[in-house]
Amino acid sequence: MSDSRTAPERVHEIVLHDDSVDKSRETGQPSILTTGLTLIAVGVALFLVWQTVSSLLIVFAGVLFAAFLDAAARALAPVLPLSRAWRLTLVLLLLSAISGFGLVWGAGKLPEQTRLLLKVMDSQVDILQEHLLSYGVDLLGPEWGRDFAQWLFADQGRFLSHAHFLLGGASSLLTGVLVVLFLGILFGFDPTSHRESLVALVRPSYRARARAVMDEMGSVMRLWFVGQLIRIILMTACVWLALYLIGLPGPFVLGLQAGLSNFIPYLGPIIAAIPIALVAMPLGASLLVWSVVVYSIIQSIEGYVIGPLIQRKAVETPPAWTLVAIVLLGALFGVMGIALAMPLVAIGRVAVIRFYVEDYLGDDLEPATNKRE
After folding, report:
1. What is the mean pLDDT of residues 340-346?
2. SS3 track for the chain
3. What is the pTM of this model?
């Protein structure tokens, strides 16, 4: 089929097409090929993240530990006129000394207290099971036995399988702890170069913005970790002292598990009340009531007064969304997802507000005076 257009008309059409291509390139509009390759790259990246999420959570825990070391070094700056590296070294030495003292002190007391408390709780669970069976409720199943050790290691094959499971779990836990410690130390001593290696992945015109947002995320992680540490120490000390005055056995172990439960907001304190109630049950109804009431009062003061005062500058997410994140991350990634849900939500909120709401949508939700330095 012949083209009836004249040569000048065809030349004019080619020029117009070239002008439109040049304009699309100038305006930065992506082509179909570029869009397709971008979508494929994003899909592959999401698949790799999903497959390596356990390792990524360990890396994130190392970043949190680095944020804590950085916060401690910053706190020593007004007191010690030393370089940042020397202050970090001093912080690590102090942490090592405190950890060593805690291990030496706890090695002689904690195992015996823990064994006694587990024995008491095991007997109380048996009593509770028998009481429920009288009403036709089989809470723990037909295989539950009164002697937990005998039920757990009934034969040699089961013993070996459980021993293999325990050894594997212990080695995995030790490896994860060591990785977190070493990553925290490496990130803590040289945070700028690690940050700049990520900033270099964005366009040069956007690097200053990315650098500012990452600094804000670091500030949020510092505030969250320090706040959590303060809450754990306060909760452990208060519950320990209260249960000791009441006369409950193993008050330090019960106080420690109550303090550590604050890593899991909303759900953790409820779970921590169960061991306290089980230990107090055989000592009489009055002591049980006193233990539960005292723990509830301490937890209410910490949860509604002290906690919000400490964490209000770090985590500003509504409680319902925080609980949703804990449930979803716990279902997807287990204990690590539950423990790291709060800091992930905190920095995720910063990323969404800064990159999506403000930069993409152009809506400034927060006044400039409220933005963290």
Report:
1. 87
2. CCCCCCHHHHHHHHHHHHHHHHHHHHHCCCCHHHHHHHHHHHHHHHHHHHHCHHHHHHHHHHHHHHHHHHHHHHHHCCCCCCCHHHHHHHHHHHHHHHHHHHHHHHHHHHHHHHHHHHHHHHHHHHHHHHHHHCCCCCCCCCCCCCCHHHHHCCCHHHHHHHHHHHHHHHHHHHHHHHHHHHHHHHHHHCHHHHHHHHHCCCCHHHHHHHHHHHHHHHHHHHHHHHHHHHHHHHHHHHHHHHHHHHCCCCHHHHHHHHHHHHHCCCHHHHHHHHHHHHHHHHHCHHHHHHHHHHHHHHHHHHHHHHHHHHHCCCCCCCHHHHHHHHHHHHHHHCHHHHHCHHHHHHHHHHHHHHHHHHHHCCCCCCCHHHCCC
3. 0.71
